[in-house]
Design a protein that fits this description.
Residues 2-54 form the STX17-like N-terminal domain. This is STX17-like N-terminal domain-containing protein. InterPro entries: STX17_N (IPR059001). It holds the Pfam family STX17_N. By secondary structure, the protein is mostly helical. It has one domain (2-61). 94% of the residues lie in helices and 0% in strands. The chain has helices at residues 2-22, 25-61. The radius of gyration is 16 Å and the shape is elongated.
Length: 62
């Protein structure tokens, strides 16, 4: 289920980026920072998810 949530988030980011390209320069600059922050946050969450998944898999093998 977490993997599905992550995939949905990534798809939403792609949609935002496509809309972002259609904006005028002033609005685009406003959203640039928000998009970068969102991508960074999601990248951290994905990394944490992978770590937790690996830990769970390792503990289930023992």
């Amino acid at each position: 289920e977490i993997g599905k949530i992550v995939q949905n988030l990534l798809q939403n980011i792609l949609n935002i980026e496509q809309l972002h390209q259609r904006l005028n320069d002033k609005d685009r600059v406003k959203l640039d920072r928000q998009i970068r922050l969102l991508r960074s946050e999601i990248d951290r969450e994905i990394s944490e998810f992978h770590i937790l998944r690996e830990q769970a898999m390792a503990s289930s093998m023992n």
